[in-house]
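User:
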Amino acid sequence: MKITPKVMLTQKAVALVKDWQDEPPIWEDYSPEETTSTIDALMLALAEAIAAGWETVRIVVDDMDIRVEPETGVMVGWFLPQYLADRYRVDGGETDLHLTVCFLGDVDDLTVEQTRMLTGIVAEVAASTPAPFGVIDGWSTFENEDATVWFAVPEMTGLDDFQSRLSVALTDAGIESKQYDGGFHPHITLAYLEPGAEPPAVQVLRSEPFLLESMTVAVGGTRFDVQFADNFDSYREFADNDYETNPNVYQASPFVPFVKSVIDAPKRFTLGPWYVPNEVDSHGDWTDADELQEALWRYVKSGYRDIHLQHSADIKAGEWVEAMSLPWAMTVPVIDVNGEVSDHVYPKGTVLLGVQWEVWSWPLVLEGKITGYSIGGSSMMRDEPAPGPDLTPGPSMV
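Assistant: Predicted structure:
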């Protein structure tokens, strides 16, 4: 990967550099000692950025010249929610994954009056545009002056219309939007590679459907969210059809999440498997118990607790309230898709997640329309057969 300027929220930058301290990246032409020195200098610079009140920063690492600068670019775009960003982020690649709708240059390119008008114009166009929806499906590359750009491909309904109408509104207001060569082609940059380089052998999976309920206006280091018009019914129809035609992209389970005391309706609570180790899932993937445990710890430490409906970024269906990895295989009562309770053995290392559902989503759980949890994340892939579950029972309970 090329070492490229990385723009991100300051707190995300701190988390990234902390990860680098734990597992130093491999940078071309950098010795291990130089890498450690660079990372330490970045952490010091970020501390100074926080003290200065910078909300968003640009990290630049260039020939041992380390800079943490305030972001000065102006754009309108969609920043991927945490679960999608985690899934599509690649080692050494971009960290603040987003889809740019309009790029407007630098803050110095706009007058004070244009800067004041910008958010209002975007908000007005968004309010009259049904919320776009779609999926991320596949990847591609293109060449720019300095690098091969590796990107994920979003397939969106309604986004082209919003971009076109927004460009006209901005032009009418005297705000110049930078033109795209050959028209608007939505893309989510994953990484900048050396010119002519091929992307690494990493599988870019098709996403579940998502709904864009808002769009972000980024002016320098400040971001403002504006809302689209309601389009939930069209999105639900699309998502339902997508489930029927692409069931392999969903981490489906034959079991509805089992519930403490079978049904604990007053608390709207379910306890079910977040992921089962050493078993091939519906994507054809698997992971072992150790990696799964590490992933759970990172998830818990992130502090992010929202559970989304069908991975939709802005539809909160519940909140997870407890999590644990089974220390040994455990037989538990599970409600199957027919509503009948039967025993099921979960192997050692299975992660269980307890969720308290929203009032509106709880009936979907009881009706079997929400049938399980789907873990989000990213990984480096390699071909290796799953060893099979560890069904060693735990100690007897007397």
